[in-house]
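PROTEIN DATA CARD
Card holder: Guanylate kinase
Chain length: 194
Origin: SAR86 cluster bacterium
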Amino acid sequence: MLSDKQDKLFIITAPSGAGKTSLIKNILSYAETNGCKVHLTLSHTTRTPREGEIDGVDYCFIDENTFKENIDNEIYVEYAMVHGNLYGTPKDSIDSFLEDDFIVIMEIDWQGALNILKAYPKAESVFISPPSIEDLRQRLLDRGLDSEDVINQRVSGAEKEILQKTKFKHEIINFSLDTATKKLINIIFRENHG
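Structure generated from the sequence above:
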């Protein structure tokens, strides 16, 4: 275990629609502009790609049998069933980049995040909260990606997820993408200047 480099691992979680994907895109853009070595881990999932998602960029989309073989082969540092689909994080996508002095960012659900924190107890953890449940519902509606049933399921799940925020070292309430981005940049890059 890379105990001396675990503080370069940033675990970022949020309810669906709270803006974590947009925040992480902004962080990656900031890192590229400023010449920072940052790696975003790529999760495996059994769900079908959403419109615009690219295999090998957004996720590694695999079938359930392959996913289960990977579990048997202990490929994943964590995996979970989320909204009826399997998601998992390959261990080598964390360790090899930490070893090469990258800042490693994980975008992951809260259950997976808590499992990662067991394996990497010195990692940093950030919970992104929506300003309110009503705001979250509106964002999900505005996205236009999911049916009303799926949105209701996600909002119900979000209410439970938000209760977990106290288990994370940092919380950012995403009132504004610009402000939330600045806060996240400060957490990630301030922590790693030393």
